[in-house]
Amino acid sequence: MEHRHLQGAGLGLRRALMGALADAPTAAIDFLELAPENWLGLGGYYPRALAALGERWPLVCHGLSLSLGSPDPLDGALLDQLKGFFQRYEVPLYSEHLSYCSADGHLYDLLPLPFTEEAVHHVAGRIRQVQERLERRIAVENISAYLRPPGTLGEAEFICAVLAEADCDLLLDVNNAYVNGVNHGEDPVAFIRALPPERVVYIHVAGHYREATDLLIDTHGAAVVDPVWSLLGVAYDHCGVRPTLLERDFNLPPLPQLLAEVETIRHLQRQGGWRHAACA
Predict the structure, then answer these.
(1) How many domains does the chain have?
(2) Which domain holds residue 228?
């Protein structure tokens, strides 16, 4: 399977949702996303239940621990496990964070890279190695950040350079663009419009926590807010309608409430499709 076959609106798979999803109408969502590290090596019920869900919906994978920007060597054993997992469940798309989470040990957070030419060359080379080892293209995600390491490039400029040098795709996280815009006094609309539309293959939307007027925390633990929905429309206008995931990691409401947000994505996708058709 290739990412071009992926379409529509998806939902993040959490184990607490598995029972409700087993009884949900197949037409309610178009795909599920999971963190593969949380499923590797499991036996018994979970692989069987995951296979059953995979019979109904495509399973997309979004990694947590590859640490693309780390100074440490890439984890070859993990890459081999991932490759087998992708083959077993016919995963159409794999993405990872444009960040690092290890440096002589695990750091338990997704930390921002400096926006420098040196960092571009470092992380792009590692992405190429990953793609060669997995024998597939991957997408990298713009992350939320609470500080800006010293650098000579803007965030969009840095991302564009990495995508070009690595020849990989982009997972555009619209909520992260909004969070960074508030936290760093930047324009999320200008950020999105500066990204190469042909590289965007997948989109995330999520909720966040407002700590202060100028500090948002990317929690994935609340409903999506109106400014983020508006930015999703901006993203569709810029790059066209792309498969889009609703991320919700905790404070999980009943499944019907999540499906209502998935339906909001579909509504915006229909609007985006109509606008593109009108402009064609």
Answers:
(1) 1
(2) 3-279
